Amino acid sequence: MRLRSGLALLLVLFAALLLAAVPASASGPTLWRLTDLAAQRVRIADRVAAAKYGTPSPIDDPVREQQIYDTVAGQAPALGLTPADAVRFFRAQIEANKMVQRGLYARWDAHPSEAPATRPDLGQLRPVIDRLNSGLLTELAATIPARKARSCPNRQLVAAGVADVVHHFDALHARALGEATSATCSAR
Q1: Measuring CA to CA, which residue among 122, 109, 117, 113 is closest to residue 57?
Q2: pLDDT digits (tens, 9 = 90+) for 86-140
Q3: Angle between the 32-52 and 83-110 helix axes, to the nearest 10 degrees?
Q4: Distance CA 173, CA 162 (A)
Q5: Cα dihedral: 55, 57, 59, 61 (round 10)
Q6: CA-to-CA distance for 118 and 115, rounded, in angstroms?
């Protein structure tokens, strides 16, 4: 595990150095802030899972999900985004969040001593998620040129690798970040 982490860190640092060597005029907007916000949204899934675990509240919440899709679709045109692109990106965010919740539920079911001792208030978490969503939507618009660029998949891979290291993600959260960023690059 330590070897994997060390190799991942070296790969990320090498890729970051390569990207830093590109002149600013050629590199365009960066995907870092968008990726970091997605990582923060992945991380808050832990608190959402803790709020729901052992309660009748299901992981899947179609009503809340649709509210988010409707909100981002409504705001997208004013930011220069298509509603479909915004919804596609946020669907990935929500699926990543549910991936973490399901993974944590399985962990806690298998190891009850690791289950959360306190239950956060979901009503207090939703405004935090809404602020992250707002930031994500703003960054999604700000990064249109970078997301359309041919180099986007490589740049996204580097940004996700750096976020994985910065946020100290375990395998579950790293997979979820991969899911969350899977819709970053615009389809060609």
Answers
A1: 122
A2: 999 999 999 999 999 999 999 999 999 999 999 999 999 999 999 999 999 999 9
A3: 50
A4: 13
A5: 180
A6: 9
| Model pTM score | 0.85
What's the CA gap between 169 and 132, in Å, rounded? 18
SS (H, E, C) the chain: CHHHHHHHHHHHHHHHHHHHCCCHHHHCCCCHHHHHHHHHHHHHHHHHHHHHCCCCCCCCCHHHHHHHHHHHHHHCHHHCCCHHHHHHHHHHHHHHHHHHHHHHHHHHHHCHHHCCCCCCCHHHHHHHHHHHHHHHHHHHHHCHHHHHCCCHHHHHHHHHHHHHHHCCCCHHHHHHHHHHCCCCCCCC
Structure tokens at 135: 């930031």
Amino acid at 185: C
Here the tokens at position 123 are 């009503």
